[in-house]
């Protein structure tokens, strides 16, 4: 699976807007917060790989 990196741009209720940061496109996607780690906040950097999101270390 391809690894993708995102930054949490905005949290809106049960959803979060993520902006892609690894390819320079800044494409935004809307993701249900249930699919994201519990302790995210705006500005948190995430990694998507193997069909799940994790906080970037």
What labels would you give this structure?
mainly beta, about 55 residues, single chain, five-stranded antiparallel β-sheet
Main sheet properties: 5 strands, antiparallel
N-to-C CA distance: 19 Å
What's the average pLDDT?
Answer: 95
Shape descriptor reads globular
Strand content: over 45%
The amount of helix comes to: under 10%
Radius of gyration, whole Å:
10 Å
Give the low-pLDDT segments.
none
- Strand runs, count: 5
Structural category is mainly beta
Q: What is the H-and-E element order?
A: EEEEE
Instruction: Count helical runs.
Output: 0
Which strand order spans the largest sheet, edge to edge or round the barrel? 3-2-1-4-5
Please tell me about this protein's structure.
The structure is a single chain. The protein is mostly beta strands and 57 residues long. Helix content is 0%, strand content 51%. It has strands spanning 4-12, 15-20, 28-32, 45-49, 52-55. It has a five-stranded antiparallel beta sheet with strand order 3-2-1-4-5, with no helix packed on it. Strand 2 and strand 3 (28-32) form a beta hairpin. The radius of gyration is 10 Å and the shape is globular. The relative contact order is 0.33.
